[in-house]
Amino acid sequence: xxxxxxxxxxxxxxxxxxxxxxxxxxxxxxxxxxxxxxxxxxxxxxxxxxxxxxxxxxxxxxxxxxxxxxxxxxxxxxxxxxxxxxxxxxxxxxxxxxxxxxxxxxxxxxxxxxxxxxxxxxxxxxxxxxxxxxxxxxxxxxxxxxxxxxxxxxxxxxxxxxxxxxxxxxxxxxxxxxxxxxxxxxxxxxxxxxxxxxxxxxxxxxxxxxxxxxxxxxxxxxxxxxxxxxxxxxxxxxxxxxxxxxxxxxxxxxxxxxxxxxxxxxxxxxxxxxxxxxxxxxxxxxxxxxxxxxxxxxxxxxxxxxxxxxxxxxxxxxxxxxxxxxxxxxxxxxxxxxxxxxxx
Length: 344
Fold this sequence. Notes:
six-stranded mixed beta sheet; about 40% helix
């Protein structure tokens, strides 16, 4: 509920806006808690909607259907906002040529981060003064407005004109339950890749600022290994769509960037030798690259042997999203075991 309370503290904007909270099939009283906060913070423009279909895609596209505005902003439930976030968004989209906004995302650590984390930040972003730490979803291009590659727009605060989102085909699958991970895709990256192929840039707005919560359990090798495994699935999905002609062959994939990033991670762990982590000798740093390639291989094999996955990956869009959960679970129970089908 920190995210909702942070919204209540924003500097007011003259632009009319609405707040839609998607409860993605929770069973812990989330709906009632959200309703209570909306009333307590006087969000007369806010409401909560239940979406039973699991996955981030279902929540995002339900939000599109429920909303009325010309500009759509999708935020994660673990961020807080800079006080000028709303005003800066309104100012950015007041310019007709602005179709996509890249937010500034800074880490909000729950505890002191391990020393080796500093080695995971990269400055190889093609622009001076830029830095990012992809595995915890943070990015900083500094305090000046600028145009950036559309792929740098992150899902923690993804702002896009409605008509552009529709034109680009909508979001791709992401954030599905572990047992349905073969149906994972590349989320908002699919939108950004298509935008980039059409020559569109994102408007980086430093005052569109969010602080992304980084809890202690995301600063462990176990979490980073799992995240790397899932990123391998995502990369496989992107590459398969590229091979099918759904993405441009001319667009360089993220795989080279990810390999470099995983190498940086191994090196950082070896240098830092964090004594409070089981990876203190640096040996497990290499398992992150291994996890990435295992996730990649797992998805490639599912694509080759699972007709549901093949059809899923090659869909032109996902507006009529209906995750074939029953078919997927039936496949998992009856198909032959796959060598890469394991949880890190």
